[in-house]
Amino acid sequence: MLLILSFTAYNQEDSVVKVKIVNEEKGFAFHYNEGLKKLQSKDYQGALESFNTSIQLKSDENRTHFQKGIALYSMGDYPNSGLSISKSIQISPSSDAYYYQGLLAEKNTKPEDAFLSYNESLKLDSTNHLSIYNLGVIYFTRGEYTEAGATFQKVIKFKPDFSYAWNDLGSTKLMEKDYKGAIVAYSKAIEITPDFTICYNNLGSAYRKIEDYTSAIRAYSKAISLKSDYFIALNNRGSAKLESEDYTGAIQDFSEAIKHNSNYAAAYNNRAGAKNKLKDYQGGIEDCNQAIKIDANFGVAYLNRGILKEALLDLKGACLDWKKANEFGVKQAASYLEYCH
Q: pTM of this prediction?
């Protein structure tokens, strides 16, 4: 049965230190500093206007172009933000400018360009923890977990209270099957940030891997207490209950997950598994039908529907589903197909 976990690395777009200009040409510096004040108060349009005025007075000040780029980035105007950041780099490269260039590349779904920009950032400041961190995220998404783990460790060396790095180190260890190491890292992230909702969910998934279902359910429950509509944590807590043979409790959690996300195919599939345990075979088939309706390529749902059909003595229908599951690469399907000759 497909039991969805959630151990995603998260990109942290932290603010860059705003450097106030002093003892320079009064006109452009005044408008630059006014722009900083507005940027810090999240008046992005006002900040943009001040930076534009400053640039009219002094067009070759890299910091003004950089801060204008941040204002545009904050407004969601990524193309023009990129132009301003590039202009800043053209005038005088900085580590922070390359960091933002990396963020913009990721916004444009260009991870390789982002990778290059973060490395350029580190050439200028090897301690820029945000650039290091985002490199770690890229390694993680590539499946290069050894490199990702080492990179997150490096972030922690420079900024030990960076809870995102601890969370993602935990996710890296989880992928490497170092479950106890993952628990330690997730717990550290939570110690730093007690309301880290996603991290409680991830911690629950690590406890499930070592079959400590009591601790897993406790962690998932904490995530849900912080975010009542957190359907992923509800699904995962249901999975922990299913694995600990609390089938009624599992169905309640899967149903609650579906209530908050009616297109959550995994929860329908998992609820079918719980219904199978309670011998509600027809109810399970209906859930598998819904899972497949949402995701026609959901191979495990075909496998499970076949198992439920077999329980109702519909071997022909079961074999058709197992064949479909096998086509989608579900390894368990091959052993069930042996009954279909």
A: 0.86
